[in-house]
Amino acid sequence: MAKIAFFGLGNMGASMAKNLVKAKFNVTVFDLVGSQVQLLAEAGATPGSSVKQAVESADIIISMLPAGKHVESLYFDEDGIVNNISAKSLFIDCSTIESSTAKSIGEKLQAQGHRFIDAPVSGGVAGAAAGSLTFIVGGDKADFDEAQSCLQAMGKNIFHAGGIGAGQVAKICNNMLLAILMAGTSEALQLGIDNGLDPKVMSDIMLQSSGRNWTLELYNPCPGVMPNVPSSNDYQGGFLVDLMNKDLGLAMGTAANNRSVVPLGQLAKSLFQMHGNAGNGNLDFSSIFNAYKHG
Ligand code: NAD
C-alpha cells in the first residue's frame, strides 16, 4: 500500500487521516500543533517530528490546511516539503484555496517532476468523521486515478472536474449557490412567518412545490422545523459563517478574474459578511435566518 504523509490535522484533517489509518494505509502525520499529532499517533498513525521526517519516502502527500498561503508555505519554504523530499510524489491538496493558486502550485511541482491534484471537499466535519466526503478533483486523469484508493478511504463521491484548479472552481461554484439558497430560503420563510404562517407548514408546502431545494430538504434554517440540524441547536456546529465568508470571497475573486457576472453571489457575500461582522462568525451559516427577523 502507498505510504502517505498527511499534513494539517484540524477539524477536517484529523478525521480524514484517521480514516486512512483505518483503511490500513501507512500514514505519517504532521501538524504545527503537537497535541493533534499525538491524537493521531494514538489512533495508529506514525507521528512526524518535522516536515522532513514526515515526507521521508512518501508516495503520496496530502494537505488539509486553512488557506492557499499555508499550502504554498508548507510545500515551498526552505524547510518545506519540496526541499526535503527525495522521491517524485503525488501531491493531493484537499484545502479550499484560490484556483489560481492551485494552478501555480501545480506548475511549480510539475517543474520539479512531481504530480499535483487539487481535491477540495464538501460534507463538512460530519462527512470527514464518517468517511463520506465528496471530493471534487482537478488534475490529470492518470493522477486522479492514482489518488482513487486513498480518496475512497475518506469519501463516498469522487468527481473529476477537469484540469488542475478545476476542483477549486467547482467547489466554490457549489458553495456560492448554497449561500444564495440558504439566504433565499430564510427570506421566504420569514416572509411567511411575518404574514402569520407556521414555518413548518411553509416548509412542507415549499418542499412539494417549485421552491424545493437542499436547505429545505436537509438543513432548514428556522429553529424547531427540523430536528438534528444546527438551527435547532442554537446554530452550533455545522459549517461556520466565517468559512462560508471565506468561500464566498474565493468565489468573488474567481469571478473578478474572468469578468463573470455574479450579482446574487455578491449580494450573498454582503449578507454573510454583515452577519459575520455582527459577531456571528462562529455560528453555523444557516443562522443567516436571524438576519431577516425583526420586531
Ligand atoms: P482547521 O483550522 O481546523 O485546521 C487546519 C490545520 O492545519 C490546523 O491544525 C493547523 O495547525 C494546521 N496547519 C496550518 N499550517 C500548517 C503547516 N504549515 N504544516 C502543518 N500543519 C499546518 O481547518 P479545517 O476546518 O480542518 O479546514 C481545512 C480546510 O478545509 C480549509 O481550507 C477549509 O476551508 C476546508 N473545509 C472545511 C470544512 C469545515 O466544515 N471545517 C468543510 C469543507 C472544507
Description:
There is one protein chain. With 295 residues, this protein is an alpha/beta fold. It folds into two domains: 161 residues, NAD(P)-binding Rossmann-like Domain (Rossmann fold); 124 residues, N-(1-d-carboxylethyl)-l-norvaline Dehydrogenase, domain 2 (Orthogonal Bundle). It contains twelve helices and nine strands. The longest helix has 29 residues. The protein is elongated and about 65 Å long. The model has no long low-confidence stretch (mean pLDDT 97). The site of nicotinamide-adenine-dinucleotide (NAD) has 26 residues, from helix 4, helix 6 and helix 11.
What is this structure, in a nutshell?
It comes from Brumicola pallidula DSM 14239 = ACAM 615. This is 3-hydroxyisobutyrate dehydrogenase. The protein contains 12 helices and 9 strands.
